[in-house]
Amino acid sequence: MTATASATPRRRRRAPVGVLVRRTGLYAAGVAVFLFSVFPVYWMVATAFKPVGEIFSKDVRLFPATLTLEHFDRVLNDELIPGVNFWEFLVNSLIVTLGSVAAGAVLSLLAAVAVARFRFRMRSAFIILLLVIQMVPAEALIISVFINFRRFQDATGVQMLGNLTGILVVYTAVALPITIMMLRGFVASVPRELEEAAAIDGASPWTVFWRILMPLVAPGLVAASIFAFITAWNEFIVALTFLGRSTEEYTLPLSLSYYFGRYGTEWGAIMAASTLLTLPVMAFFLFAQRRMVSGLTLGAVKG
Amino acid sequence: MAPTAEAVREQSPPEPPPPGGGPKPRRRRSLSTPYLLIGPALAILVLVLVWPIVQMVWNSLHDYTVRNLLPNAPAPEWNGFAHYRRLLTDPEFWAILRNTVVVCVLMVGGTMALGTLIGILLHKLPRWFSVTVSVGMMLAWATPAISASLVFRWLFLPERGLVNVALDGLPDWLVGSGWLNYNWFLEPVPLFSVLIAVIVWQSFPFIAVSVLAGLKSIPHELYEAVRVDGAGGWRSFWNVTFPMLRPLFALLLVLQIIWDLRVFTQLYILANSFQNKSVYLLSYYIYQQGFSASPANYGMGSAIAVVMTVMILVVTAYYLRIMIRQGETR
Question: Which InterPro entries does the entry link to (chain A) (predicted)?
């Protein structure tokens, strides 16, 4: 590529070798990056399929000698506490994740329409608030939120800690600033003329919203929802703190702790459970990766 | 996406009528509708994120422990700046603060350098190959923090961890001996090394993919121009790529700093307890004071949280200024 710049015949003859070397180097680097990215994931899955004997053997093999489903069987079917197994934790995870995604989708779509379509006095203040809020780490707020939930619970009797309600509320709030900003871009990019034309044809605002705006904003809503899903699905520390000893309310990430430490660590089961935890996120990532990048770096590369 | 959105916004009149409706309801709606629309989101943001920031500051100025939460307990007492004074004179806190900054710089630097290099590599590879590598990177990116931490713990485990076995198998003149039983999780330097490895492994794909997207937006003619001037890869990066992507790099840097300053889950799995104060980072210290110390010290935990929040806001003030100046808030 670069070597062809020169016009002398001698150099031109040598050029292909240089290009070949260069290209080989690039490909080798590509392969290295691929292996570096994939290897820990491979190792997680490979360990999940190894029989206990091989995991505890000092003869560590890169490829499992025999494959077994014993760890998946243990994770999926054993009751970690009486009456509670993987499926209960999965249901808990799905409740908080889907609940916060649904609530977040409605709240952020409404706010995004307001910010993209209306001029009002608090508009700038609201957007600056969203930007600033994203910067404040949830880890710094967890003590205050915990105390608030505790006090609210004591005052009203509505349980916020030790069940899924509190973490559902927190997950919804934490994802909001980013999902509103993502959706705002999508709403703003729908030409206003489309809506005006429909309105002139006699469509009600409601019809305009559902028939014109929604279909065009739907991809953004999907991307924002996937972002919110992944945030809630992976979350560990808030769930750990707010659920405390209510182990039957644990989400999937917390359920991993059952295989960790207590009576010696079960690496096979940990890796099998980690694999199951990772699968949905991977599926979503492969699906929405590009939109999430543009959502996260929104407004950074302009003209 | 962004430029078109900006253009659409530019065209719109300052008080655009909402679609549909007669003249009367139109005026009334344009006054209250936006507030009704942001109302629910604003309410939950204020309750769960904004108000707790205020309380965090308030808590940090009071003697506030778990005892104050008991029924009929006295209200927390104002203690001036006792928590802050104690922190400032506590060598342990300074060590944790120093470790946090050093570890964060190494994580961010490693992630940015590796991510940028790989972004450029992806740009140079043929499309099919670049897509294949990207899909591999998605796997690293998509792995939940808890799974990633557990896998790295397993990889670095004494005796059976693949890394220890591999290091032990390498010739002694290259890496030294005795790796098989080496415990990575006791001392700060080895533990933080593993921590940095997990974080960089999980974070570089986002940087690489963002840089790749940025590179695709740079007109090819610019590179041809500097090539005619005889610039090599290094100079064309500093003369074309970097200036063109400066806003992107600034944003990625800020995001990465925020994310890496608050690392918790990975440390929680690698350190596995709160016994060893020498491997704490700030976020870990907050949590330990708030939930693991006995009695849980909310005041002190909040004071450390204030320190961390101020650090992050100082770093991001620059970024916020850019965003506001670019008209993101218009």
Answer: BP-dep_ABC_trans_perm, MetI-like, MetI-like_sf, Na/ntran_symport
